[in-house]
Each structure stands twice: as C-alpha cells, then as structure tokens.
Write a structure and sequence with these properties.
The structure is a single chain. The protein is an all-alpha fold. It has two domains: 232 residues, Citrate Synthase, domain 1, CATH 1.10.580.10; 100 residues, Cytochrome p450-Terp, domain 2, CATH 1.10.230.10. Helices cover 56% and strands 3% of the residues. It is built from 16 helices and three strands. Strands 1-2-3 form a three-stranded antiparallel beta sheet.
C-alpha cells in the first residue's frame, strides 16, 4: 500500500489490535460479558476473587480452587519493608495514582525475575500484583493521614473487606464490603480500552508484568479514562443542589463544555455497569443513610438524557461509582486507584493472553512533515 493510500484512524477507533477471549461488548445493545458471562449475573452472584479467577483461567473456579486462590492472595498481601519505606518518602499531597504507579513498578524490584513465557513465574506475578495493589493504596492513604499502615488479615476477609480493613483498622460491615466487592467486579475488565492496550503494548516488548501493569495504571489515571469518576463528583459538588441542575447543564450545553460521566466510546445506550452501581447505591443509601448528592446525580441524568439521549449520550460507569465510593467514606482522589485495583485482574489476564502468541505492537503512521531538506549552516539561518 502506498503512503497516499493509507487512511488515518484517529485514536485507532475500532481498529482491532488483538484477538481476545476475555471480555465482550455490544455497545448498541448495552451488553458486557466476562468470558461469556453477563456482567449483571456476575455483579449479583459473583465475588471479585471468583471474577479474577474467571478472567485469568476462562472458567469459574470450583470451591477448592476458589478457597486456594483466597489463601494464595492472603499470603501475598504484605508489602516488602523496602517498599513501605519508599512509600514514606512520597509527599503527603501526591496523587495516589502517581504513588500506585511508581510503587507497582518498584514492587517488581523486590520480586524474582519473571521469565517471559514461563507459566509459573507469571502465576506468581499475577498473585503478587493483584494482592499487593490494595495494600499499597491503603498504606499510602494511612501514611498521608499521619497513621501507621495496618497489616492485612488472612483469607477470612474478602479482597474488598481486607482493603477497607487496611484503610481504617476495623472490619467493615457487610453492606460496605459487598458494595465495594461488586464495584471491583464491575471494573475488572472492559475489552481493549486505553489502559489495557497500554499494558499489552509494554508487555509485547517482553517487558515484565510489573512494568506493564504500571503502564496500565498511568493510562488509567487520565480524566478521559479512569480519572473521570473523580471529575464527576467534583461536578456534582459544584452544582450543589437539585434546583441548580438544569441551569448548570444548560450552560454546559451552550458552551459545549464536557459533562463528565456521560457518553462512551463504545456504548450508545446506558452503560450496563451503571445500572448495577445505581442499584447498589439505592441499597446502600437505604441502609447507611441518604446522600443528597445522589439526588443531584439523578436529576442531571434526567436532564442530559432528555437533551442528548437520542445521540447515544447516556451515563457510563464513572457517573455512579464516585457517589458510591464517597458513601463508603473513601477520599475522592482514591477513586481511580480503586478502579486500578479492580482492573489489575483484567490487565493481567490480557498480559497472559498476549504471552501465548506475542507480537510486538508497531503501528504505522502517516507522515505530514517536510522532506529532502538541505542542512543550512548556523550563520546562514534567518
């Protein structure tokens, strides 16, 4: 194909970059499946541990496999002393995503080398990364509060419950732990999104899984990807009350301002994950008390869909996740790290898939600059 015949696809939108059997999306019908299982069923019936196993192995675990996986995760949660010392050196006002990205890469320095293609090495890295990321996030959160990190408990606490325990030093109630658990399930994978692609590109160079997951974390941090949930809550807090919603939204429409939490590169209907989070929110607010900002969100959804719904603009998963996390008492800048904790399961499943038949990613480009220029001596340049 000649250079003139090449066609630019901005952002590689819709261009297949790999074959994958991990997750499936039908954006028109509002379908998301992990390994063929509808996300609605997994959110209702599954756990994060079970979902992480499913994403990696392709099948739901047996009771013995799930119990063994829970024990293996518990054994890998504690952080190396050197990494804890490193976390203490970060400024207390650093964004937790910067800390998580750096610490995840650094974790690899404390672990054995992972030989590319070695299944046993990869399994160890998979367990270590999934288990340690919540410990990193929780330890730094406590450090910046002026508190000492809390050591993780054993497999008697779930992945979600252990994270909440490491944050506050007390075991969470059942509704809080289950709410976070479901949120982790909903965020665990989402086909070839920006962060998954970033992780696969790095891993495709035969780099290690710690470096590759660190790259995924960096991509997830952006407000056009995982960082959107922080921006949603900031917008809702700016609006302030239900009475202010319509005027605020109309101003955004007039100035072509972005309303965070709406629209998706794939979904043309309401994100199926947002239905599950909205249901979770209703249940949690009924038990733990109402959150006025939720009423603002519902009114904003009504106004935006009324105006833009026929153009395929509906709430995405980021729209409700921040409200749920806020009710759990989590700081706003920890929302995206929690997203990363969940997405690590999907990223690692993609790395394992990449490992089976690796091809280095090397996309082309369409050159639009000048050519065949002669060098001009510095004293002759204008």
């Amino acid at each position: 194909m000649t250079a003139e015949a090449k066609q630019l696809v901005p952002g590689l939108a819709g261009v297949p970059a790999a074959e994958s059997a991990i997750s499936y999306i039908d954006g028109t019908a509002g379908v998301l499946e992990y390994r063929g299982y509808p996300i609605e069923q997994l959110a209702e019936k599954s756990t994060f541990e079970e979902t992480a196993w499913l994403l990696m192995h392709g099948e739901l675990p047996t009771k013995a496999q799930l119990d063994g996986f829970a024990r293996d995760l518990a054994a890998q949660r504690a952080l190396p002393e050197g990494l804890v010392a490193m976390l203490r050196t970060f400024p207390k006002d650093a964004h937790p995503m910067h800390v998580l990205q750096s610490a995840t890469a650094a974790l690899g320095a404390f672990e054995r080398d992972v030989r590319f293609g070695d299944e046993e090495d990869f399994r160890h890295a998979w367990l270590r990364i999934v288990a340690a990321m919540p410990s990193i996030v929780a330890a730094y959160e406590r450090m910046r509060r002026g508190q000492e990190p809390v050591a993780p408990k054993g497999p008697e606490l779930s992945h979600a419950a252990n994270f909440l325990y490491m944050l506050d030093g007390s075991e969470p109630d059942e509704i809080a732990a289950r709410t976070l658990d479901v949120a982790l399930v909903l965020h665990a994978d989402h086909t070839m999104n920006a962060s998954t692609f970033a992780a696969r590109v790095v891993y495709g160079t035969n780099a290690g899984p710690y470096d590759s997951i660190s790259a995924g974390i960096g991509a997830l941090h952006g407000p056009l990807h995982g960082g959107a949930n922080e921006r949603v809550l900031q917008s809702l807090e700016t609006i302030g009350s239900v009475e202010n919603v319509r005027a605020w939204a109309e101003k955004q429409f007039e100035t072509k301002g972005k309303i965070m939490g709406f629209g998706h590169r794939v979904y043309k209907v309401k994100d199926p994950r947002s239905f599950a989070l909205q249901t979770l929110g209703d249940q949690m607010f009924a038990k733990l008390g109402h959150t006025p900002i939720y009423d603002v969100a519902l009114e904003l959804e009504k106004v935006v869909v009324e105006r833009l719904g026929d153009k395929g603009i509906h709430p995405n998963v980021d729209f409700f996740s921040g409200i749920v996390y806020q009710k759990l008492g989590l700081p706003t800048d920890q929302f995206t790290p929690i997203f990363a904790i969940a997405r690590a399961a999907g990223w690692l499943a993609h790395l394992h898939e990449q490992m089976q038949d690796n091809k280095l990613f090397r996309p082309g480009q369409i050159y639009v600059g000048e050519r065949e220029r002669d060098y001009v001596a510095i004293d002759q340049r204008v």
